[in-house]
Amino acid sequence: MATTGDKRRGRRPALDPNDRRRLAARIAKMVLVDRLEQKEILQQLTKSEPGLAHIDASTVSRLYRFALDTGIVRVHIDENAPFKPPRLEGLERELIAAFELQSAIVADTSGHEETLESSLADDRLHQALGQLCADYLDTIVRQNEIVALSSGRAVFYACESLFNKHIFDKRNVRGVKVVSMNGNIAAEVWSMESPDARRAMDADISGAWLARAFPDAELIRLSLPVAVKSPDMIDEWLAKGPGRWISPAVWEEKTRSGISQNSSADDDVYVPTLALVGIGGVRAQSGHRFIVGLHEPMLGNLQPELGQMIDLIEQVSGNGNRVVSCAVGDLCNRLFITLAARKNLPAAKISALEALVSSINERLLSITFEQLYHVPKVVVVAGGATKIDAIQSVLEWQAMGWKQPIVHDLCTDRETAVRLLEAKRNAKRMS
Fold it and tell me: What torsion do the CA atoms of 360, 358, 380, 261 make, to the nearest 10 degrees?
């Protein structure tokens, strides 16, 4: 009879406690996030770590139970979490006709006038818009799509919602590239999940969620700051490296020469085929990323003009002395003075705002409004009563002095849609 020495039949080496927790966490992720079966889990474990060849199905089950019992996996159930609202097709058709849009998505939920008075309601509005926008994106993203993102909460929630949807319903859309359209602020905003939870608003963060929604998507992180110290530095930052992805000169060259994302050219920088952007309203008492991140190091390069602009905005749109609801808006972190402000503010105030906005814009590492002319499909997800002036300004592209529309699709809430249509009818009556 053959001897086995000191080895006893059926005895498996015990796992170190730290290795056990690491392995339990990994298995839990495979079960809950990757949705793998036991057989697939065993194959991945033995392939990546040959030392785990002794692991069998019963061990996988025990480790998964260990992850649940010891708090490695924590389940959060929120019965008050916002459900995905229904769409209002009548308002959608009216928006398409009024603003010559290609498509519109209107959530049957209301915007909220004061974000700080109702942070929970404001965050739920953003998440509701993100859920509907994710459903829409799921129908339009195609093979080899190059998707560009701006910063903002609504964009973040759309990307996160699409990722969550694809955990259970993966789409075999391959060759997708995801890239940011502006630099990072490193600011965070309060989240609905708990009083201590925060949501990052940078496009690089949103891009990471969106890229994970597709099987082999490539994430191109810009890893750039939102602004530089002087306008002279802009060309230097955009001349090489990740900055070339948002270089106006590169976009113009690619468009002029007809180079597509399917080209075999050596240069791996392409003009996006789809852009998902938010529209923000810069108000002194708001959750806008320039306000939330006012004292972040990455916004330091915009001082003192940013602080002066916020003070001036407070004078004309503060709660106690509101001349306009939103004097300055932003698209892809690039600022603009709204049509409402141009119409209602004194010439001296407009001149002061223009000087500050111009000084800030010329130091921003972000695409220009004109660059969006080159993107075949630009989807805006934005809502809330405090942003109506900003959203209306972007939709009224001729009055803003732009050569062509830069927004093709709009995802917004019921109240915002109604007010936009009212403003459009009033403008027609006065013309």
Answer: -80
* C-alpha closest to that of 394 among 275, 292, 224, 300: 275
Average pLDDT value over all residues in the chain: 84
The residue with tokens 């057989």 is 39
Q: Which fold has domain 89-430?
A: Rossmann fold (3.40.50)
Question: Which tokens belong to 133?
Answer: 């926008």
Considering only CA atoms, which of 332, 299, 389, 291 is closest in space to residue 155?
332
Structure tokens at 74: 């924590």
Phi–psi pair at 90, nearest 5 degrees? -65, -45
How much is the pLDDT for 126? 87
| Whole-number pLDDT of residue 290 | 75
Q: Are 207 and 217 in contact (CB under 8 A)?
A: no
Residue partners of 114: CB distance under 8 A and separation at least 6? 285, 319, 386
By mean pLDDT, which of 87-91, 105-109, 191-195 is the weakest? 191-195
User: What residues does each domain of the chain span?
Assistant: 17-69, 89-430
**Res 337 pLDDT > 90:** yes
Q: What's the whole-model pTM score?
A: 0.78
Who contacts 340 (Cβ-Cβ below 8 Å, separation ≥6)? Answer: 324, 325, 326, 327, 389, 392, 393
The predicted structure's pLDDT at residue 76 = 61
Q: Comparing 261-270, 311-320, 345-354, 391-400, which segment has the lowest mean pLDDT?
A: 261-270
- Distance CA(280)–CA(47), nearest Å, equals 47
